[in-house]
From TrEMBL:
Keywords: Cell membrane, Membrane, Transmembrane, Transmembrane helix. GO terms for cellular component: plasma membrane. Its main location: membrane. One of its GO terms (molecular function) is transmembrane transporter activity. Belongs to the ABC-4 integral membrane protein family. It comes from Flavipsychrobacter stenotrophus. It is found in: Cell membrane. It is a multi-pass membrane protein. Residues 299-411 form the ABC3 transporter permease C-terminal domain. The lineage of its organism: Bacteria, Pseudomonadati, Bacteroidota, Chitinophagia, Chitinophagales. PANTHER family: ABC TRANSPORTER PERMEASE YTRF, MEMBRANE COMPONENT OF TRANSPORTER-RELATED. It comes from the Bacteria. This is ABC transporter. InterPro entries: ABC3_permease_C, MacB_PCD, Macrolide_Exporter_MacB.
Amino acid sequence: MNNIGQIVITSIVQALQELRVNKLRTFLSLLGITIGIFCIIAVLTALDSARGMIQKNVETLGSDVLYVGRWPWPGMEDGEYKWWEYWRRPSMTKTEVYAINGQIRNLAITTLCLPVRNLTVKYNDAELSSIRAYTINTDFDKIQNIELAQGRYFTASELEGGNNSIVLGSEVALGLFQRGVSPLGKSITVMGRKFTVIGVMKKVGQNMADFDFDNGMLFSYNTVSALIDVKSLQYEPRLMVKPYNKANLAEVKDEVTGVIRRLHKIKPDQPNDFTVNQLSGISKLLNSMFDKINIVGYVIGGFSLLVGAFGIANIMFVTVKERTKIIGLKKAIGARRASILTEFLLESIVLCLIGGLIGILIVLLLSLLVSKLADIDVVLSIVNFSIGVGISIIVGVISGIIPAIRASDLDPVVAIRSN
């Protein structure tokens, strides 16, 4: 046991000495290992962070929510994306909401949202264009988890009665009102009509369901239905359905499909004129894409590791040649073949570990920098770091095995006499 420990310590010391004596040669050889491990761990970290953000989005929006509309989301339908057919489909209206609520019992929430794009918003001399409004029905906040920075949300009577109250997104509020000026109670003009600001939403960013509340605003669906044709093909109302129990989601999806088919008088042999979307479908599509990116990361890292492995192998061959006499002396005084082989193999592994740890350290520092500057939750996984260490050890074994075997096979007499 003591002998093994001594071999390990000797190998580490000799590897560090190799770094100190031949700085440039060793650095260039380790560079391939460092780049390879960096590529692999950076890709794994980026994908884990992206998956974490997606999971957070799904949990926020509700993985148990059905989004019914004309257009299927990516990955929800197989084959060609027949936009020319989807565009002509009928819009969801409150008629579908009433039908679903009246015929399906196992529902917690059914609500409707109609996004209206490219609106102009005015307050005194301030004017914003290309703003999106989300005209909503009762219970919309229970599905989309609306959080307010100022003011309050709509009452049920304000939404049902078509009240001229409005809730602004954070960026819209900043664009219309000077810093320090409260938007609450102020009147703004939208679609030629005056609206009273009752609240301002927190900054949240765009989510997976394509809701960009920061650059948008909320007001009553009943209000806008008196101003525009909500059945027009230029608009895309979204019907959202949430069951009491997530376990019943598939059953509720079938029931919702049946209710709307009957309401639209679709014959049994005819396809649906609507699509029932789920966030889980997007998650599966993105996970599939991430798996492919993962493979690309491994391929790029693999090429770098291959170059690095040749570099480490070259160092070890040179090292064996430089220490030939020492190896001969060790074998002459009784050093076993396995001890010589282990010594050089461990030295190769230590060199690769140093390169790998430098790559992991770079990933760690960049992750902390990105977290602070971009306000992104970077997932730093012990598993990923362990993978990096494991790959470094494997590369070290592969790089050092042939030089180590050559060193262990040297004849002591010939080795001592060598120049």
